[in-house]
Automatic annotation (TrEMBL):
Residues 1-26 are annotated as: Disordered. PANTHER family: THIOREDOXIN DOMAIN-CONTAINING PROTEIN 15. Coiled coil: none annotated. Residues 5-148 form the Thioredoxin domain. InterPro entries: Thioredoxin-like_sf (IPR036249), Thioredoxin_domain (IPR013766), TXNDC15 (IPR042418). It comes from the Eukaryota. GO terms for biological process: cilium assembly. Keywords: Membrane, Transmembrane, Transmembrane helix. The keyword Transmembrane applies. The keyword Iron does not apply. This is TXD15 protein. The lineage of its organism: Eukaryota, Metazoa, Chordata, Craniata, Vertebrata.
Length: 212
């Protein structure tokens, strides 16, 4: 007997549509006009500049924002790769800010750990870069998967990217917010240990039991 060959049926229309929708960009970014721009580079915000002033809530353009600290070795190793991104995606904007100088923004957007990268559309955060491998290629893949915008193929990390504008060399500094928090916690523990009776009101029900 000859074997019977069953024809291969095409996939249902719903599955095909689902595949197409999965490949669609998650964020529909409005690409900026680059005709009047001579040099595509990263902009670093200083302590007096507010991130919200650089994000237009009424626009659908996209901005990739890096939260970093100059004494974090992971931020320093990421720096040259992030410096090269504006050349790879000239139609997008790229900003970076020192998280220790903008603690309110770090709390607002949940960027306590650094480096932390957020993709904004207008003034709304749309996606967060969660890969531990922070290279130019993984960053390009992240932007492409989120926006559908392809990177320029001839862009690579150069010696100028290692020099700036984002520093790739660690700088010695003190995280004053962390130091203050540790000192406050240590002082509170010492005070609670010496004066135990003074914090009995913190425990619910202890005051009523003492009165009885």
């Amino acid at each position: 007997e000859q074997p019977v060959l069953e024809p291969v049926l095409p996939a249902p229309a719903e599955e095909q549509n689902g595949t197409d929708s999965a490949k669609a960009p998650k964020v529909n970014c409005e690409e900026r006009n680059t005709t009047s721009i001579d040099r595509f580079t990263l902009q670093i915000l200083n302590v007096s500049q507010d991130l919200m002033e650089f994000l237009n809530p009424n626009s659908s353009d996209c901005t990739l924002v890096l939260f970093y600290t100059p004494w974090c070795r992971f931020s320093a190793s990421l720096a040259p790769h992030f410096n090269s991104l504006p050349r790879a995606f000239p139609t997008l904007r790229f900003l970076a800010l020192d998280a220790s100088q903008h603690s309110s923004l770090s709390t607002r957007f949940g960027t306590v750990a650094v480096p932390n990268i957020l993709l904004f559309q207008g003034a709304k955060p749309m996606a967060r870069f969660n890969h531990t491998d922070r290279t130019l290629e993984t960053l390009k893949d992240f932007i492409f998967n989120q926006t559908g915008i392809e990177a320029k193929s001839d862009v690579a990390v150069t010696e100028e990217d290692w020099e700036g504008p984002l520093p790739s060399v660690l700088t010695k500094g003190i995280d004053w917010l962390l130091l203050f928090s540790v000192l406050f916690l240590a002082g509170f523990v010492m005070y609670a240990t010496v004066r135990t009776e003074s914090i009995r009101w913190l425990i619910p029900g202890q005051e009523h039991e003492h009165q009885e």
